Amino acid sequence: MRRGRTWTKLKEKLWRSEMAAQEEFFADTCAAFIEYCPTFMVLTGIPKIPYSPSAGPADVLCFKHYNAEEVLMGRKMEDWLRFSVKYYTFHDRDMAPEGSTLEESNRNLDEITDLALQLQSQTGVRVLWVTCNLFAHPRYMNGAATNPDCHVLAYAGAQVKKGLDTAQKLGAQNFVFWGGREGFLSIHNTDVAAELKHMANFFKMAVSKCAHDYGIHSKSEYREKIGLKCQFLIEPKPKEPCKHQFGMLGSVDSNTGSPDLGWDTDQFPMDIRNATLVMKTIIEQGGLQPGGLNFDAKVRRESTDLEDLFIAHIGAMDTFARGLRNAVRIIEDGIIPGMVKDRYSSFSHGIGQKMEEGSASLEEMEVRILTLVF
Predict the structure, then answer these.
(1) What are the protein's GO molecular function terms (predicted)?
(2) How far apart are CA 345 and CA 341, in angstroms?
(3) Hey, CA dihedral for 243, 245, 249, 252, is it positive or negative?
(4) Active site residue: 91, 151, 188, 212, which one?
(5) What's the mean pLDDT in 58-76?
């Protein structure tokens, strides 16, 4: 037991040394960046990217398909394709390093978001979403909202509260719940029902403010209390654990990976067929507002030219523009929507209609089958 405690203390000491080094590097990097490029001179030589549909293959710094002002189905392309080039997103611990206490972490976040607020007013770039990093710190090794230790869950709640306050401060359009460590490793030591209940209550606490401490048993929305006007989003992971999870989209993480690999490689999306299906779904649900298409992607390690970053964004934006045009044609020609409607036509009359309305009974189902003449 003594040896185990010694090893635990040693690991904690090593971890704190690593965190201190990261914080020092973060501070030095930010200071150097602000001093070196106060007017973004690092981008000197990159012109404004024009729309040039007739450009040749050697012209890479132009859009061949993305035309922001083009109107499709009553809406500008830039409104259908809410790219995060005009927005930025962040985890709280990406924006400012975690301190040794919650108070210190909150002060760090306040200091850097004061600067972010100034830069937003100077550039017009806005916050698409804010989220809290509830997975990187060792305290979250067994989850945050599903952690078996109430103290850890309470810490996560305090962190989310500060995240909501930060979202309000910066005018974020969305707040994301990303449960990177939620779940379990072994069913033998896990009370699944309890953990799911705790997670549900965690979401409710984030949305609503209970006033039981003051003898009041009513609830008022916390976002209304602090003046936060945003949409709440939950970030799922495809195939983690289910292939198909939700029937709705609030915002899209617009990156891709190699189909023959089993991990996320954060590549810019270049598959027109996939983009077509994505945009068809987005159109059919009326758009993504206030969400957007967030390029959570990066150029490859072998890239050494600043232009590569622009070429990658241009290619991905053109891919979605082509996908949007394809999706509009699919919807407007009516062939596939008509096929889908015909496929479910048996629910438009008789027992099918009653089933659709929720008024059919099992007895009626049995009678139909017993009396049906083939």
Answers:
(1) metal ion binding; xylose isomerase activity
(2) 6
(3) negative
(4) 91
(5) 95
Spatial neighbors of 166 by CB under 8 A, at least 6 apart, are: 92, 95, 109, 113, 130, 172
Q: What is the pTM of this model?
A: 0.68
* Position 101 in a domain: no
Mean pLDDT of 131-137: 94
Mean pLDDT of 24-50: 54
Q: Identify whether the C-beta of residue 336 lies closer than 8 Å to the C-beta of residue 330.
A: yes
Greater pLDDT, 8 or 101: 101
The answer to whether residue 122 scores a pLDDT higher than 60 is yes
Euclidean distance between CA atoms 327 and 159, whole angstroms: 41
- Which domain, by its residues, includes 19? 1-44
Angstrom distances, CA of residue 259 to CA of 197, 237, 243: 35, 16, 15
Single out the residue of 272, 325, 266, 273 nearest to residue 295, CA to CA. 266
Q: What is the pLDDT of residue 208?
A: 65
Q: Are 71 and 79 in contact (CB under 8 A)?
A: no
Determine the straight-line distance between the first and last CA of the chain, rounded to whole angstroms: 76
In which element (H, E) is residue 87 found? Answer: strand 87-91
Residue 290 pLDDT: 86
Residue 313 has pLDDT above 90, yes or no: yes
Whether 235 shows a pLDDT value over 50: the answer reads: yes
pLDDT in tens, 155-192: 998 999 899 999 999 999 999 998 888 887 777 788 88
Q: Are 143 and 181 in contact (CB under 8 A)?
A: yes
200 touches 187 (CB < 8 A): no
Can you read off the two tokens belonging to residue 203?
A: 């979401």
What is the identity of the amino acid at 217? Answer: H
Please give the single-letter amino acid code of residue 85.
Answer: V
Decide if 268 contacts 313 (C-beta within 8 A).
Answer: yes
Catalytic-residue membership of 244: no
Does residue 331 lie within any of the structural domains?
A: no
> Could you give the number of structural domains in the chain?
1
* Cα 210 to Cα 212: distance, rounded to the nearest angstrom: 6
User: Alpha-carbon distance 167 to 159, whole Å?
Assistant: 12
- Position 213 scores a pLDDT of 40
For residue 179, give both structure tokens: 């449960």
303, part of any domain: no
C-beta neighbour count of 303 within 10 angstroms: 13
Q: Is residue 24 part of a domain?
A: yes
